[in-house]
Design goal:
Blueprint (H helix, E strand, L loop, with lengths): L2 E5 L5 H9 L1 H7 L5 H12 L6 E7 L2 E10 L4 H8 L9 E7 L9 H16 L5 E7 L3 H9 L3 E7 L10 E8 L6
Parallel strand pairs: 4-5
Antiparallel strand pairs: 1-2, 2-3, 3-4, 5-7, 6-7
Helix pairs in contact: 1-3, 5-6
Length: 182
């Protein structure tokens, strides 16, 4: 399954709102889906005013999911939260992701999306030494997809969850840039 990527645009916000309203997404993203909230939270990245990148994952030009990627140094408070639990290398990035359509889950699509995202980070950001991803411990589908994508669990600790029904326990995953020629 070949995945291509493009930046999220404001014209994609109706699609994104629909995804965020899906029970399998809402459970873990727990996001306000009003047009105003989607504009507030995704508009700055779509407009290039935010340092994070919101990307649509496409399969055969059909949207599959959303990937957010950013340098941890651009969000110092968040980097400090993670740094209280694990070492955060200078220049590290983090990702967050979702599969929009429930019918596309459970088929390895998330793993393929994460693998592709990692490959593109290594290509697009050649100085990034590692990618760190916190995942709420109660979401085994997400952390298993990370493990299948080459990530290693490097820590477990408390971080505020997106959804207030979740326990604060998160697993932290890391993948390091492969050595040259590997």
């Amino acid at each position: 399954m070949g995945i291509t990527w493009r930046r999220l645009e404001r014209s994609d916000f109706a699609l994104l709102r629909g995804w965020l309203e899906q029970p399998h997404v809402q459970r873990w993203w727990y996001h306000d889906t009003t047009p105003e909230a989607v504009e507030r939270d995704f508009g700055p990245a779509a407009g290039g005013e935010e340092p994070s990148e919101d990307l649509l994952a496409l399969v055969d030009d059909r949207p599959l999911g959303l990937l957010q990627r950013c340098y941890l140094r651009d969000y110092p408070e968040y980097a400090a939260e993670l740094g209280a639990l694990v070492a955060v290398p200078d220049g590290a990035m983090t990702i967050d992701y979702l599969i929009g359509d429930q019918k596309e889950t459970g088929k390895g699509r998330g793993t393929a999306m994460i693998r592709s995202a990692v490959h593109h980070i290594w290509t697009d950001h050649p100085a990034v030494p590692a990618i760190l991803v916190p995942v709420v411990a109660a979401n085994p589908a997400s952390w298993r997809a990370l493990e299948k994508s080459g990530f290693t669990r490097v820590g477990t600790g408390e971080l505020k969850p997106d959804n207030p029904v979740d326990d604060w326990t998160h697993h932290l995953y890391r993948v390091d840039r492969p050595a040259a020629g590997a």
